[in-house]
Amino acid sequence: MTETRQTPVQETGPRPDGRAEQPEHDEELRYQFPGDKRASVGTSISSRAMVRRLPELIRRSLALAWHADHRSTLLLLLAQAASGVFGALALYATTGTLTALLGPGPVTTHLRSAAPSLTLLTVSAALRAALGIAVTTLSGRVGPRVNRDADMALIEAGCRAELAAYDQPSYNESWEAADRGAATTPDLLTSAQDVIASTVSLVAAAGVLATLHPLLLPFLLLGSVPAGLAAVRTARIHYLATITTNDERAALRIYRWHLIDKQRADQVRSDQVLDFMLAKYRKAEARIVTVTDKAGREAARVSLLAALATGAGAALMWGALLFLVSTGRIGLAAAGSATFALRTAASSVQGMVGNGTRLYRMGLYLDDYFAFLDSAGGHRIARGEIVPGPPKTIEVTSLSYAYPGEQQEPALRGIDLTLRQDEVVALIGQNGSGKSTLLKLLSGLYLPQGDGRITWDGIPIADLDADGLFRQVARVPQEFARWPLPAHENIHLGRHDGDPVQAARDAAALTGFDEVVDRLRSGWRTLLAQGWQGGAELSGGGWQRAAVARAFYRTARQPGLLILDEPTSDLDPRAEHRILHALRALAPGRITLLVTHNLANAKLADRVVVMDQGRIVQTGTWDELAHRDGLFRELLDLQRDRTVPAPRPAP
Ligand SMILES: Nc1ncnc2c1ncn2[C@@H]1O[C@H](COP(=O)(O)OP(=O)(O)OP(=O)(O)O)[C@@H](O)[C@H]1O
Question: CB-hemisphere CA count at 13 Å for 476?
Answer without folding.
Answer: 28
